[in-house]
Every structure is written in C-alpha cells, then in structure tokens.
Fold this sequence. Notes:
The structure holds two protein chains of two kinds.
Chain A: E1 6-11, E2 16-18, H1 19-22, E3 35-40, E4 45-48, E5 51-54, E6 64-68, E7 72-75, E8 78-83, H2 90-97, E9 107-110, H3 112-128, E10 133-136, H4 144-149, E11 154-160, H5 165-169, E12 176-181, E13 185-186, E14 198-202, E15 209-210, E16 223-227, E17 231-233, E18 245-249, E19 253-255, E20 268-272, E21 290-293, H6 299-308, E22 314-318, E23 337-341, H7 347-351, E24 358-360, H8 363-366, H9 369-378, H10 400-417
Parallel strand pairs in A: 1-6, 8-9, 9-10, 10-11, 11-12, 12-14, 13-15, 14-16, 16-18, 17-19, 18-20, 20-21, 21-22, 22-23, 23-24
Antiparallel strand pairs in A: 1-3, 2-4, 4-5, 6-7, 7-8
Chain B: H1 9-26, H2 33-50, H3 59-62, H4 69-92, H5 105-127, H6 133-153, H7 163-184, H8 188-202
Amino acid sequence: MKEPFLLLEFQSEVEVSNYSKSLFFAVTQPVDTGKTILMGSRGDLFLLGEFLVQYRDTSIRKPLVVQETDSILFINGKITSISLSGKNSEIAWMKDLLKQDLSALQTVSITSDTIGACLGDLKKLAAVRPDAGIVFSGEFNRLKEVLNIFHPPLILSPSLHQSDYGLLAALPQLKILIAEAVDSVMNEPLPAMPSLKQLVFTDLNQHAVITGDLLVNNRQIEKIGLANGGKLDLSFLRSLKNLRELVITQTDSLLNQEEINRHAELEVLVLAGKQMKIDPSVIRLPHLRWLAIPATVTQDEFNLLIKNHPGLEVVEIMNNDTISKLTALSGLPELTGLTLLDTVTDLQTVKTLKGLKYLSLPKTLLEDSLTRVELYQALPGTTIAANEGFCMGSGWLLLLLPLVLILRFGWRKRANQG
Amino acid sequence: MFLNVRISSVTGAVSCSLALMVFSWFINSGFPAHLISYGALFLVAFLMSRQLSSWSDLKRVTGESSLSPKTFLFLIFGVLMGISMSVFYRWHLDRPLFMSALLPFAITAALIGSMEELVFRGYLQSQVSEKGSVFAILFSSLSHTGYKCFLFLTPALYSSVDIGFLAFWTFLFGLLAGIIRHFAGNVWPVLIAHALFDIMVYGENIYSPWWVW
C-alpha cells in the first residue's frame, strides 16, 4: 500500500528540511514568518534546526508546532528530541526531564563527552525510553556503551568503519541507519539487520568503491540515501528486493544506471547534483510518484522523463538552467507538488497546473507582488493561496436543488396519478 | 410503501445531516466509492422534497418574513458581515485584502455559498426549530461544521488543511449565521453574507480550488 504524499505545515522559526527526500540538499524556506510548508510522507525524517525527527502520525491534521530550546525540541507541546552536551549543569536538568512526559521522545543527541559525563543519567533515560533513537557526533565505536542500554530504532553517526560492523550485527531492532561511510573501499557486506528499512550513507568518499554484495544480508531495505559520492556504481543495489525510495545527491556520476530499472517498485527517485549525468532513456519505473531531476538534464531529456512516468505526483527541478519549458508537466494528471529551485522561465505552464496543492518557487519570484497575485488567481488551494476551505464546500452540493425539484414534481405527478 | 412512512421533522433533519456528511466524505473518492456520495445526496433531496407539498412550503427554507421591514436592516448587516469576514480571511491568508479581479468562477462560488445557507440555515434550522431556537441554531451550526470537516478529513483527499481552524471558525460562523437567521426571520441576510464572502475570497480565481469538484 503506497504512502500518500502529504502537505506538512511546521510552525517553526528554524529551517526545516525533508531529510529523507533530499539529504539536506534542499532546505525549505518559510513561506511566512514562522511557517514552513513542505511535502513528505509517513516515515520521512525531518531536520528541524539541529534536531532530527521522524514524521509518524498521519492522523494529525493540523500544523506541527515546533518549539526549541538549546537542548529540547517540542512538537505540539511534547518533548520529541533531546540534545545532551555533557555539561555539569545538565545533571539537575536531567532529573527534571525524567519527570516530564517522554512518550513522544524520538531521538537523543549525544556526544563522546556526554557518554562519559552522563552515563548514569543516560541509563535512567534508557529505563524510561529504551527505544529512543540515537544521534551521535563521535566515532561509531564509541557508541558501544550506549547501545548496551538503548535499543534504538534509529542511529545517526558520523563515522562508520567496516570494523564497526560487529556492533551493527547486535542491533536486530534497528530500522534506520544514517552514517558517514569513511572507508574508501567497502568490500564487506553489511551484517544482517532484519528490521532495517532505511539506509543513508552521507559524505561518501569521493573515490569510494562499494562491493556489489554490500546489501546482500539486508535485502529488505526499502529506502536508500547516498550523498557526496564521486563516481557511484549502482550495482550494489541489485541485492534489494523491495526498494521504494532512492535518493542520490551531490554525486558526480552514476555507473550502471540501468540498475535503477530493476527496482520496479520504486516510488521515489531523487537525483540531485550539479555534475550528475543521467540517461533518461534507461529509466522507466511504472510506479514512480516522486521525481527530482538533476541540474544537467536537458529539455528533451526532461520531456522524455516526464512522458515515461505519467503517474508522477511530485516533481522537483533543482538548479537546472537548461529546462525552460514545463509543458510536459501538463500531461501529469496526478501532479500535486512542484518544486522549482531556479530561474522560472515558464510560469505560464505553472499557472495551468490546477491540481497542484504545493508549489515551491524561488523566493525572488514570489517577492514580486504582481506575480503573487497572478499565482493566487490561477492556483487557488496551493500553498501560495493557502486556502483552507473556509466557507466554500463541495460544488456538487449544487445538484441538490435540481434533485429536490425533480423529486418534488415527480412526487406530485405520481401522487396525482395515484 | 416506505415512501408513505411518516418521518418527524427532527428525524428528517438528523438524517439529512448525516447524509450530508456521508456525501462530503465520499465525494472526492474514486469510482465506485464516489457513487455513495450521490446516493447520500439523493437521500437529502428526497427528505427535503417530502417537506415541500406546495410552493408556499418554500417559506420553510427561506423563512416566513422575507418582506418584513427589518429584513432590509439585516440585509445591510449581512453585506457588512460578508465583506468584513472576507477581508479578515484574506489577511489571514497573507493575500491582498481586496480582490483584484472578478472572474466567472465568482458565480459558482456565490452559488455554492448560497446553497450551503439554504440547506443549513434555511432547511435544517427550520426543521428542528420546534425544539427551540437555541437547539436549532446549534444543530444547524454543528451540521455545517460536520459537513465541512468531513470534506477535508476524508482519506481520499490526503489533505493537511488545518481541521481545527476550519472546525472552529465554521462553527462560529454557523452560530452567528444561525442567530441572524433567527432574528431576521429569514435566510436572505446570511445567504448574502456567505455569497459575498465567497465572491470576495474566491471570485478572482481562474479555476476552482481543488476540493470543489
């Protein structure tokens, strides 16, 4: 069952980005003071300032109110993320914290110093929320003591060596792993992590060589994110059986691009990078719903990509100077989200996309009041117009009047005949 | 035979309200769930038509005292209410306070707003008025709020419209409209207020908002 792409509103003063769908490549600026709207789906990770949280509860149909102190992130009044710096002043603070409602706590950020200074308090926190995710700013192998007391479903760590794979093997509950793969040669398969669904390698070595068997013990992975690679050979994706999201950013070139097509269930394909060259004729994904296009794609290549994927719901064109005509987008009946992060030369086509619910345009374009007014007129119900359905419901209610009259006169006629 | 079963006004009104919520829940669904909404709308039309044995019965919908002198004053109030609410809502949306153009969609917008008033403050409020004016006002406002919220709560839309905001202000507007309808003795002031609001908020749109059709 596919997860719907939703419009999410964060009431927050900090910058917000959908980390899962962009790996920090695109940060959404607030559309209004303290309000940021962007698209995402259940399970996506969002960066809210320095904090990392996951969007889980799609039943919440109201803005996510974000409040932040130096150490705590609140969402809708609930503690969602904590950052521990290891200062002595935190000891009393931690005691107070443990008395609060931590039912919504998702992640705990810790440093190498924190482990040393606050292990006792971390144990108390782990007793309350052993399933809190860990965001760590030290070497992965320093997490050993923490992993003895927490059973995190999410780990973000800057430095993962192949020598740390033994630690990973002891994490059967791990669902999301975000790590900087520091080894230039990754020739050992990752250990089996049966619950792992999302794997992100950030800051890939420019000359990284990845073995084709890297994921052979983790065929169940559904989401892959790769950032900052040089030449990236996609052969290692072959092991995966259920890949749904592939996000590759700031990578110069992709080898064996046809591997992408092996994953017919792919719904999200984000390719972003100033140098990245792709061959659109190779990419044909019948279930593709979210597509981000790199800077080097030409007009013809863009038209072909769009034509080959009529089920697209979200299209992102980032830092692309060559695509000047967007008329191909008119052939996407399901299109609900559009991001254009560069000079927009075809606003006319944008105005005809009446099914859009989300439109992200360059800030400079929206600062022109005439353009804003034109967009409001042409695209009611998008984030630009930000309509909320007040005082106007469904137009089909107008059928009620003729129906009443027909039934009324039909009734009378029947009554008279009776 | 069931066509001749007697249904009390209140029962009919409750049934109409529930049917309208079913209608708004399914109207944006794909086929065949979409058909349920038409069935619900048909039920509403059926229940309403049962109450109309003659043209004079239309007064149950529009109100008994359409031509009374105080109607004129309430009409002015309705116009001011529509304008001021639209200005406030446009300010809330961070848009220019007044519309810059009047396009054909304004007619559709006015008709939709008018129909909602005829149904909720006209028909439903009058149907339950035998239970007291306070009950009638609350009932019509709750019905209207339920109808609007179900339109955006339906999973078919995957909408992230702020339901809390929508529910609160729709209910508040409904209370105010119901009170005006009660004291005016007819539905015309609130109908004009609602139609004017929709014209001023949506009338410069080239296309209808995505939830309308």
